[in-house]
Amino acid sequence: MSLAVASACCWLAMPAHAQQAEGAAQSPAAEPPAAPPAADAVVTVSGSRIAARGFTQPTPTTTLNADDLAKSAQPNLFNTIAELPALQGSTGRTTSTNSTSSGIQGLSSLSLRGLGPIRTLTLLDGQRVVGANVTGVTDVSQFPQLLVKRVDVVTGGASASYGSDAIGGVVNFITDKRFTGFKVNVEGGQTTYRDDRNATLQAAWGRAFMDDRLHVAVSGEYGREQGIDSPGFGEVGANGRSWYRNTAYQIRPLSQTNDGKPQYTVIDHAQQYQYAKYGLITNGPLQGTAFGPGGAPYQFNYGSNGRPTGTGAVTGCVNPFCVGGDLSGSVGAGTNLAMDLERQVAYTRVGFDLAPDHEIYLTTNFGKVKSVFSPNPGAAKNANLTIQCDNPFLPASIAAACAANNITSFQYGTANAGFPANINVHPTRQMERVVLGADGKFPLAGKEWSYDAYAEYGRNRTDILVHDITLNARYNAAIDAVRGPNGTIVCRNPVAAASGCRPLNIIGDVPADPAAMAYVEPAMGPQQHTRQTQQVASFNLNGEAFSSWAGPVAVAAGAEYRREHYSVTGDPYGNGVSAGSPNTPDYPADPLLNTAVGNNWYAGNYHSASGTYDVKEAYVELNIPVLKSATWGEANLNLADRRTRYSTSGSVESWKIGGSWKTGIDGLRLRAVTSKDVRAPNLSELYAAAVVVNNVVSYQGNTITVQQRTVGNTRLRPELARNTVLGVVLDRPHWAPGFSVSADYFDIKVDGVISTLTAQQEVDLCTAGNQEICSAMVLNSPTPTSNYVTVQAFNLASLRNKGYDLEASYRMNLKDLGLPGRLTLRALATRTISFLTDPGVVGTIPSEGAGSNLGGTPKWKGLASQSWDTSQYSLTLSERWISKGVYSNEFIECQTNCPVSTVIHPTIYNNRMKGAFYVDLGGTYKLNEKATAYFKIDNLGNVDPVAAPQANLSFAINPTLYDVVGRVYRAGLRYSF
């Protein structure tokens, strides 16, 4: 109790959106909240399947109502939900923008407790939604958002109530099922840098017919956020952003760390010395020669007073970076900060009352989300090219220098800045979903029971197209040019020349030959086409079975069948199937390409796969009053059990035991819940596409060549979690009727975590005696070419996340101070004490993620708001806070007298990473009874993101935690009648 009150006092001036401490929501609305429900009202809560009088859940649930969502004024509800402190590690349009092949680009998926979207169950009206990715996670951008009247975030294990994937909790979007009238929302905005322009148009209409028996609601939405395009090469931020500094790790070899100096140093203005913007000779006597306009050679400026050694190294620099120098070829700043994202959503619900208490309904949901982004400019080649000295594109002075130094070739690196267009990725997700259902209530044995049943069919089609990207073999053939017998420049390889190769000049800043570019970058680039379907049949029943001396005993029970299927098809050049067939006319056969394995593209090598599984499950949940006393208060016991059978992994049980005690002390409530939760392996983990490459592993002291067969694992078992929450709530005591505060401790342990190992890690585990791993390989075949290692996911790792949530709110009527309206202060924060990940692999140790700000779980994440609301206008100030942290908890920080660095515990000069504090301002003004104008300014101080060093220069920021867009202005108009 003292902890809760003390924390509340500290937080009253800070974090925000209220958590549902009781069965009735304490929402973070900027408008004055509605009066709490009467004592005999039926309150439905998402922490449980129970809907009964007086029930108060033991599982904490944060609720945002329609006013809260409107006040956030975001073009996508995903952005509002992801700001809640318990949401950590969510993916959106600013994450994965440096990735071509991840498949999650443009996917708005929510993650609770940093456990990942795959361990957060996202529902629409308590119903599952077909996945928008092969991992099965949903895309919130495809949901109908204008008709959402409430979002419940269950911050605790809920598998017993809702099924698989609810290890971190549940996010449930509740729509207004009987909306009547018409409303429209128009919004637009842009950043302070005049980019990422966005526009939103939403409209909804609803009406009742046939004496209020037929209810029809329709909504349509269009939204466009134009993104932040790549500025190209060099240490230049997009559109005037000056914070980008090419931050990276400079890493000394492990063998040199016995000198008392740290192995890692964080540097700004990192200069990659293995390539230059338009080409650099990286080895041999000509090392350090770069090429500029027209191919003219010049001496490259390495920075750090670096001098080339002729062996590939550079004095004064640590591979692969110098500091300063010619930064024009840097590619990190060229990654889009935010994707161009377009939403089109249509939703209808038609309900008909067969009788006053019985309804049948049909809902349809169409959602199409298109995004576009560039992962990086050019196509950097890090000193891995060989240029022959007789290449006719070389300046005469370089050819002469080759002869003078008696060399016939040299190593070469280039950012390929001469390419006319950057790589651009185009993911499109399109969902069609239909639900036919019935709900109602009926009397039984003198009690009222309610039911709901539905059948759902959902389909999601995901198409990822990549343009302006090279085929590796064609690029290598095109740059290896020679002068032909008639003096023309041709490709050296006669097989390539016969199949259409056109020579490409990459020596210096010269115009790219369109014919050569068409050869190395064919019009049809990498493609991935995924089709996912979901079929669900569900029935749920709940009511009060009987009454005891302490109150009614509530029961919920139900059964569900679910079938999940996916198929994914990659293009022939990436997948490795035969090209040139009638089915692949856009991908002609090419003798240079690997038709067996694929992997021919610079990036985006998608492979084909398919799989299906089905689930049968049943559950029962009880709410049992165990105490009702004027002195000792009231107490409830909540029990749930679910039995589930998966067609792939067999049967598993999940359960929940919880309780809530409304003590005799005014306003004080205690709650506790512990549960066993599960996550079944998803379709991708079970049926991942097969990819075969050659590799080498060390086995019994020998290095042997093996086939590395990467594939899904149909023998995977469900992940099993133990989730415990202990909480204390002080809710509106008589001595402070506007004050509420809560504190909840959580402890989540997940065993059998599904993770993929390297081929060598699997061999080491097999040698250590793991028979399951041994069954995935053959290492002693009498025919050496028959040796293989199957690289796949196994249930080996474990996770444990511990921490606590704090929430406080205070409401007061300002009329006592002679002012109009009401003042509302709210604060919400999550403290992650520990987040341990144990890979379960030989030679590794558990790693601590809490406070590692390169990841997704800072030690503290907070949200706060202060709202002044009147009948005419409102003004809301809010704050978002991320605590300072470290780059990695495994680093040992030291400047001198450092211990010898190890793989597990490297040494680093400075292991401190700054936090962030953002202030947002919003307001509304009621123009008349039907129209309200509003504005919102996010990141009012235009706080720059904190640099996030990597071992390369791919991005150097962390958009999972930090705001990378900058100050944003938005304004809009809502109209309803």
From TrEMBL:
Localisation: Cell outer membrane
Residues covered by the TonB-dependent receptor-like beta-barrel domain: 408-940
InterPro entries tied to this protein: Beta-barrel_TonB, Beta-barrel_TonB_sf, Plug_dom, Plug_dom_sf, TonB-dep_rcpt-like
Domain TonB-dependent receptor plug: 57-170
Membrane topology summary: Multi-pass membrane protein
Pfam families: Plug, TonB_dep_Rec_b-barrel
Recorded superkingdom: Bacteria
Alphabetical UniProt keywords: Cell outer membrane, Membrane, Receptor, Signal, TonB box, Transmembrane, Transmembrane beta strand, Transport
Residues spanning the signal sequence: 1-18
Primary location: membrane
GO CC annotations on file: cell outer membrane
Region feature Disordered, mapped onto this chain: 23-42
UniProt key word Transmembrane: yes
Family, as annotated: Belongs to the TonB-dependent receptor family.
Protein name: TonB-dependent receptor
